[in-house]
Amino acid sequence: MPVADIQFSPESSGLLQQALSRLMKWRVAREQVMRVAVGREGDIQFETDENGNQRWFDFHHGEISELHPARDKKVRLCRVLSDENLAGELAVISYRPGRRIVLCAPSGCAGIESGYIKKGFRKNKGKQAADRYAIAVSANVHGGFEVPKLLDYDEANDCLVITRTEGMSPGTTEQDIGTWTRIGSGLAHFQKFKPGFDLSIFSWREELAVLDERARRFILVMTALPDEWQAGRERLQRAAMALPGSSLKLTHRDLHDRQFIVSGKIISLLDFDLLCLADEALDAGNLLAHMRLRSFQRNHSDPGSGLLSCQQAFLNALGRNQEPSFNHRLFFYQATTFYRLALLYALRPRWANLTDMLISEGARCLDKVDETGLES
After folding, report:
1. Strands 159-163 and 100-105, sheet pairing
2. Where are the beta strands (DSSP E) in the chain?
3. Residues ≥6 apart with Cβ < 8 Å to 76
4. At a CB cut-off of 8 Å and minimum separation 6, what does 53 contact?
5. Which range marks the domain in which residue 116 is found?
6. Considering 122, 140, 164, which residue would you say is the last residue of a domain?
7. To 10 degrees, what angle do helices 229-241 and 355-375 make?
8. Which of 140, 164, 188 is the last residue of a domain?
9. 15 closest CA partner among 225, 221, 224
10. Helical segments of 193-325, H only
11. CA atoms 97, 36, 161, 197: torsion sign
12. pLDDT per residue over 62-87, tens digit each?
């Protein structure tokens, strides 16, 4: 649905603020809200963190209720949390109520030296995730990134069992330039792989459809879209209609800095649930935009030489800068990412102040789209 066709309903205005007010009655401060997810009908889910103690809440029909992973009936793996023996050794490291859960077992558990991860999905989604994981493993067999070993697909619990990987997300200082060079060359290798069977195709049309759905849900719980957001969406539409064609490559589609784990010179890549075929510029644009977001989160309005050097090292190693129209498409996908991030972070009390900066970055990338379009 185009954003222009979305009708704002005064009756639903301010639902997020209502929900946050009610959340305070559960002794949860706004700054403890880490994630906010809006459902199709305007229900709101919160993930909160107080000194490492995670909790999840749902706001529906004006009422707040606490969600407990062990009571989730849609994600089969959650059943193991009801088993006292397992609950003591499995820690919840990520949970999307009704959708998926990630559990972590410590080193040495079940005889696995590094420990393991269990990633559970809704019914019948685990097989698809296992198939995509297998493609990612094959894409990195002869170079590229390390991919944590897939130990098992547990059909009964619709979950993947994966080796646990130790390390840190990459930084963006001058000392990290070599890491970003390896990430760029790793992504170039990844994109060369041709899957043995068809993956879904994700074009700019799907990218804008994702953006419009974010906007529709945003309006359900907020009083209006952020200033200048819709003007940017309209510019994106015009830019998309003139977007040069591209070859379709293997695409992660959720590529950001926290999908990488760096341990010495080894770089591991995680999370292949959205694997598809798409424009080769999509992953790079998404990753570069997230790198800029992190600098904002560190209160750095100026990107600084470290970030710019890391970004350039990544692009140089990716090796597509000199290809006709690549930069044009790269700026387009950076712009779509910034406008999407603006809506996501506007909902999070801790980061809502970043909204205007993210929209400005999106507009700056669209200016670059116009410039590169004129050059070509």
Report:
1. unpaired
2. 33-38, 44-50, 53-60, 63-67, 91-96, 100-105, 116-121, 150-154, 159-163, 201-202, 248-251, 260-263, 266-269, 276-279
3. 120, 123, 156, 157, 158, 159
4. none
5. 75-84+99-164
6. 164
7. 20
8. 164
9. 221
10. 204-221, 229-241, 280-297, 304-318
11. positive
12. 899 999 999 999 999 998 887 654 55
Q: Compute the chain's Rg from CA coordinates.
A: 21
Same domain, 60 and 114: no
CA–CA distances in Å: residue 292 to residues 117, 125, 173? 29, 33, 13
CATH of the domain at 362: 3.90.1200.10
Give this prediction's pTM: 0.92
Quick one: which H or E segment has residue 159? strand 159-163
- DSSP, collapsed to helix, strand or coil, labels residue 92 as strand
3 state SS of 129? helix
Number of domains observed in the structure of the chain:
3
User: What's the pLDDT tens digit per position in 268-296?
Assistant: 999 999 999 999 999 999 999 999 999 99
Q: Quick check: 107 and 113 in contact, CB under 8 A?
A: yes
Opening angle at CA 139, ends 134 and 144, nearest 5: 130
- Both 262 and 280 in one domain: the answer is yes
Q: What is the pLDDT of residues 136-181, one digit of tens each?
A: 999 998 888 999 999 999 998 999 999 999 999 999 999 999 999 9
**3-state secondary structure (DSSP) of residue 107:** coil
List the alpha helices (DSSP H) in 2-42.
15-24
Question: Which pLDDT score is estimated for 2?
Answer: 43
pLDDT 10s digits, 316-325: 999 998 888 9
Instruction: Report the SS3 class of residue 120.
Output: strand
- On whether the CB atoms of residues 189 and 140 are closer than 8 A, the answer is yes
The pairing of beta strand 201-202 with beta strand 276-279:
parallel
Task: Tell me phi and psi for residue 351, to 5 degrees.
Answer: -120, 5
Q: Are 334 and 203 in contact (CB under 8 A)?
A: no
